[in-house]
Amino acid sequence: MELLEAIKWAGVVGEGGAGFPTYAKLNTRAECFIVNGAECEPLIETDKYLMRTFPEEIIAGTAAVSAHLGAKRTVVALKEKYEAEAAALSAAIEKSGADIEIVKMPAFYPAGDEHTMVYYVTGRSIPARGIPISVGCVVDNVGTMRSVHEALEGRQVTDKYLSVTGAVREPVMLRVPVGTSFRECVALAGTKLSEYAVINGGPMMGLVLSEKEKIDAAVVTKTTGNILVLPPDHYLVGRSKLKMQRIRLQSRSACIQCRYCTDLCPRWLIGQEMEPHMVMRGLWMEGQIKDDAEFVRAFGDAMNCCSCGICELYACPMNLSPRRVNEYFKGVLRSRGLESPVDPHPEARGSFSDRLIPTERLVARLGLRDYYPGHAERCLEYQPRTVYIPFRQSIGRAAEAVVAEGAAVRRGDLLAKAAEGLSSNIYASIDGTVRDISVQGARIVSGV
Length: 448
Ligand code: SF4
Ligand code: SF4
Hints:
By secondary structure, the protein is an alpha/beta fold. It is about 35% helix and about 20% strand. The strands form 5 sheets. The protein has a 6-stranded mixed sheet with strand order 9-8-10-6-7-12, with helices on both faces. One iron/sulfur cluster (SF4) binds next to helix 12 and helix 14. Pfam families: Complex1_51K, Fer4_17, RnfC_N, SLBB.
């Protein structure tokens, strides 16, 4: 099968972020192909585990994609402190004879941000709201490269590797069928807490789930890379509950215009139009600006925010939330049909390399020292009796069911077919009977 066809058939989506369907991202040519192994948020272990455990598969997937893209330069970028991972990948590169470089980055946040990584590796700044191909690059994650290799071997995406870290007895790696509940994953790692909150992802950009019903309903999808378990009264959990109205009032009265949020903003550092302190400055006159052009001048930068969280969780001495304010204004600008202009050739600021945020310092600021580094040494495999498989596990449209209530399925059977446009195939992850099927997803119960 041809590469894109195999990837589409297997239902591969980007495993490092929002889950862009990989066949669509790779439907291009590119000068430079960058494989992201930076795993930039603390307390996530998955990519490191995959690089140590499956280096040959990752390099085989990388070489196949590089050939497809016609890339002149192919790079795996990771942090210099990932010595075992770099050694494993180097050995795999040597064995394969592939022309792939390893670029070692300092341990800073957000080393794995696509825009930051492209700048670090190539010296090119992507325009605001742009994607890497606008400067000749494609970026994909190491886990995705393993899945590409699997697809080329004829294996569809049915299982997921993820780490469970934080307030657990032992940080672990898990290999579980897609659709396994978060509760079962946390139980495998064990926790002394009778009640807990979880973050789906990392502490900076992950989604905080603190309500019991939401945690009960959460399941592993193709994009789940980490479950971070925290006490329900942890700083990050409390912070996530702040209401927008309160954030706006606090921002209006307490912002001292120190501009640390701008000076440390990774998008500003690579030259994009992103000055969060100016958005904060304009907040008090929001209701008075009727003119669209003036509104864009005051708040247009908000559209260029990547929600990395540095301004809110690291930079601001007043504990304000420029990120949430930006998210609010993104919504307002969209609803008013407004867009801010973009410099097509941004130039990085000279201070880029002096303003990188060391991971260790970030961990201390986030109140996560007790759980860091929390390396996951063991990988447990687990077969749940029931899974709930959502039909939308990627950017784009939900897949469309091809089975009916009560159908008997085997692991690897097609459950829902990718819809027209951006979408991805969804497969049964265990043997069993289909229950509770809807346009949102289906439950599979084994042995019924
Ligand atoms: S860092 Fe905080 S106080 Fe300083 S300008 Fe930004 S929002 Fe205002
Ligand atoms: S979250 Fe803050 S630091 Fe990050 S891109 Fe947005 S404004 Fe910049």
